[in-house]
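question for whoever is on the cluster today: can someone run the full assembly for these? two chains, 952 residues total. i dont have access anymore since they changed the login thing
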Amino acid sequence: MKRLWMGIFVVAAAANTVGLLHADEVDELAGTIDRHIAARWSEENVVPAPAADDAEFLRRAYLHLTGKIPRVSEVRAFLDDPAPDKRRALVDRLLESPGYIVNFTSVFRSLMIPEAEAEPQFLINVPAFEAWLRVQFADNVPYDEMVHELLTTSGSGNDNFAGRNLGPVEPNPAIFYRAKQNKVENVAANVSRLFLGVRLECAQCHDHPFAKWRRQDFWQFAAFFETPAGKINIPDTDQVVEATYLSGEKAVPPSGTSVRNELATWLTSSENPYFARATVNRLWFHFFGTGLVDPVDDFDADNPASHPELLDELATEFAEHNFDLKYLMRGIVASRAYQLTSRQTDGSQSDPRRFAKKAIQGLTTGQLFDSLAEATGYYESNAERNPLNMNENSERAKFRQLFGNEAGEPANAETTILQALALMNGEFVETATDLEQSTTLAAVVESPFLDTAERVRTLYLAALSRYPSEAELASMVQYVDSGGPSDEPQTALADLFWALLNSSEFILNH
Amino acid sequence: MLKTTRREWLGLTASGLLGCSLSRWMPLLAADTAEAAERKRSCILLWMPGGPSQMDTFDLKPEHKNGGEFKEIKTSVPGIRFSEHLPQLAQRMNEMAVIRSMSTKEGDHGRATYLMRTGYLPQGPIRHPTMGSLFSKELARDGADLPNFISIAPFRFLSPAAYGPGFLGPQFAPLVVGAGQPGQTDDVDASLQVENLKLSENVTAAQAGARLQLLEQIETGFRAERPGLAVNSHRSAYELAVRMMQAGGAAAFDLSEEPDELRDSYGRNRFGQGCLLARRLVERGVPFVEVSLSSPDGNGAIGWDTHQNNFPAVQSLSEVLDAGWATLMSDLKERGLLDSTFIVWMGEFFFTPVINGIAGRDHFPAAWSTVLAGGGIQGGQVYGQTSEDGMKVTDKPVSTPDLLATICTALGIDPLRQNMSNVGRPLRIVDPDAVPIREILT
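^ ran it for u. tokens below:
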């Protein structure tokens, strides 16, 4: 094990001196993805969809990497840019932007402590945990180190009230344990799902008839979290089991170290067959909406990967590249599968596990709010936008409350009646489409040098990050010029903006 | 600015302005409801998250040391007795059937909740629908103004998947009101409203219609090229939302229309007023309504999870339950709706007969009770039996699928009907081995 760690440190040192990755490494990774995905297409006579155009790619990349849609000026600049490698350049820029840190802090927070959304009294602990995550993403800490710290943290997971009022919030990964109620079995179940992609907890109460994990395996794994003893009594039995890896090997901590430390080292090692695969699979899910293994936390003989060799190769590359999440993201986003259009052009594209058209994904509440804010020109104050400030903006909090009815569920591509009502009649969209209160709308309506066509175009760019088609433009210009039922072109523009913000094209990531 | 009145809004529908923009949205929904069987009854599920203790509610053992503090009282049916803290329900025993022989194997809240609410244990990637989605799909009405499945004050934390439509998809998701959220108002009436159901005051009805037409225009192109759940669910959600707005759906949720005295007898808490809302919804034809009793004040919690201080906790929950449920039954009866409304009372399991060291009880799925009441039930009977100490079922054990099959039968649903699941194989509404309890049905 020691030698392994030495090896990893050498790689880390090398990566640090090189700084940004070479472009060809990213191309190679994307090429690996393309090769495996395309091989399956031809085996199964799948006709892939055409490539996404620049606008489609831009909006998608913004949403996946920064959690919100681009500004009008960014859309215009990107669409006008003649550079052939502008997509790569865009991705490099977004990965270095504050939006990346904010977005992935939020993505990993809801992965690691989903309890925060369901349990009101737990919200108080979120800032400290997010502060820790932000540091990880701001410094691009290798994922194995990040998880190692999470697993070995000695901090207190007690309720943290610091975030409420004054002062900086101390980053605190131990909140993870507090979220699991400091219960050994909860921690064990979550760690195995999150970082190994294995649902051990089905074996918590009894041997599961279909899975290879036995009750003993679960409790042997749980014993790692029973510190310092590393032993645990299986409830309702006389059996005491010792901390044992899923490989069946007993943990033998050298004196002076804890079993927890041993677990962290075993779990995050590049020799662990689960860790890199589970992580690659989670990121794949983030970008494609379907894991190579799906559900993402159900690695099991009965639930095989759609592209097992691809998963293996991605996992190997990820480990060899120092568990660098950005490297993995660059490769995925540069792949052909990611850059396909979401339009279905052939029936053979309908199986999401063939990745033959870009999947349509839902936005999380946060992404939807941020995108609405971007589209409508709603600005959070500087203090509120500072990523280190955790005081919830009131509009955002209200929005979360409203959409929080869906708490506990992941980003869902399905619209509910309550969401439809909120977007149709809710205060936020109402303000955003009010001529006197909306920044975007006011700018569009009041600029004297814009003709109707340009006004319509700007609203399309603001909401949908694309220009309207000729047919759309003609029809919308006609509506606006007619003034609509209010007989007032300005109000008609507000009507158009309302319709754009309520469209599925706006509400979905496609 | 013009203020939109309901009359204007309805007039707009009549003039076809909204009708036109929505007409193309209709077939999608109609296709799924066309085959629905003729409904016998609506269903109200009174859901008790956490699992009430049967020995402190409907199956007391006052002679045994496991029995606990509560006394038994007589009910309106000679020979049947239950908890002293359910006195109003005791008077309605002739309309209820108590099943004392539920027996399941799941002692974990999450898995047991999933089992009792879907009829199946979690199995890998299959996303089983909750029973409200399953049943309301069968009982759905064409072109209804209110959703077919409304969930009042759910507490979904234990098993979020057990509260959703699973593989049936968002069209069959519940409309949720009164879910306890951080910072949500304690005002019970406000919490039971559907938010944003009214058109903004600054938008005229004509404008709203024009906006919907623009939206439909924008949707058309996008939708045609992107078939699938995401875009369809957007369409069905907007379609239903608009229909609710047009039909004055908000009125259904306006409890202030009810006399104060009646509201008092339901209990001025989220569960009691939720029961009243359930009656108003059933009255308007909603086929499936569930009301959760998660804590006496209705804030999200697993109140029945009484590991500590079992007795005071169960007593205060019982008082809320008794007022809400008994008034619901009398109110339904007075309106001639009790025969056409089937009421189910259940949680995910019950609590141990043995009282633990901190005056609590612990999870116990081996022998517990549920209650069926109202239309379709031969009231005044107890089905099954537990042993003296309450530890095991001694007569006529009932499994979860048996119970669900019984509910199906009472509602006029064929439990063997199939739905296509998300793993590519059809799944019956209830496991085919299930046997409905004919003895308690009319």
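summary bc i know u wont read the tokens: Chain A touches chain B through 65 residues (CB under 8 Å). The radius of gyration of chain A is 25 Å.
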